[in-house]
Amino acid sequence: MRVARSIDDLRPLVGRCVLVPTMGALHDGHVALVRRGVELADRRGLPGGCVVSVFVNPTQFDDPSDLDRYPRTLEADQAACATAGAAAVFAPGVDEVYPDGAESALIDPPPPGVGKGLEDEHRPGHFAGVCTVLSRLFELIRPIAAVFGEKDWQQLVVTRALVDRDGLGVEIIGEPTVREADGLAMSSRNRFIPDGRREAALSISRALRAAGAEQDPPSAERAMRDVLIGGGVDSIDYAVVRDARTLGPVTPDPLVERRALITARVGPVRLLDNAAWIPTPA
Ligand code: PAF
Predict the structure, then answer these.
(1) Mean per-residue pLDDT, 52-80
(2) What is the CATH number of the domain that holds 223?
(3) What is the pTM of this model?
(4) Cβ distance 6 to 92 under 8 Å?
(5) Does 81 lie in the same domain as 51?
(6) Does some domain include residue 281?
(7) Which of 133, 158, 170, 173 has the most ligand 1 atoms within 8 A of CB, as the residue to mutate?
(8) Centre of ligand 1 from the C-alpha of residue 206, in Å
(9) Total structural domains in the chain?
């Protein structure tokens, strides 16, 4: 497996690969994305295979201390990518991605209409940073397709809108969330859940399951809050049911896919999770 620090090192794969963009600290959820990328590249006969970018993107952090403590585990990440069959890890420095400075590279995220009141409101500037780095990575690597985890559902929706708006010509693929045996969605931040608070963190996936037992969105939202509060999370940013494609309010059309989305804090960790909202008949 190739390890590329600059786009020149990656040149033979550029324009003929599938990209899995990550910020490193890879866990089994990322490995599932890489395996999907490898399989897709194989199936499409792409000679560049699957490229995994590992870049802790400074423009998407609203809190500098969050950026500082973001785990950096490049050696282990390389080993995981090699085992999963990746053709290359692209681990550029900040200057490679933003040669004219990170601030001057910033682009606008696609306008709301693509969901409001979720991460866009709770992490202002976050999606500008995500869209900026993805535009740069797509411009440098020119992948045929890119694979993203469904755990960051709004990121997936925003990325699709970005590609449409800017005509980036990259197919965006979503891969289902990988969970621990007890139901916790895998995340690089799980390692910061304080000892003794796992039960509170688990109330997030329990709340998503409870939502499915309700027959209408307001009841589902109430049920999620009840489970989260009962489970002892420290605060809830949102626990909502939305149109899965636009992230706007749910319409009465039962054929439109819906998604239940939660973000809650447990100690210092902000945990996100979501699931299809498909009410089970009473
Ligand atoms: O989901 C992530 O890890 C990041 O937001 C991404 C897509 C790699 C952009 O930095």
Answers:
(1) 95
(2) 3.30.1300.10
(3) 0.96
(4) yes
(5) yes
(6) no
(7) 133
(8) 26
(9) 2
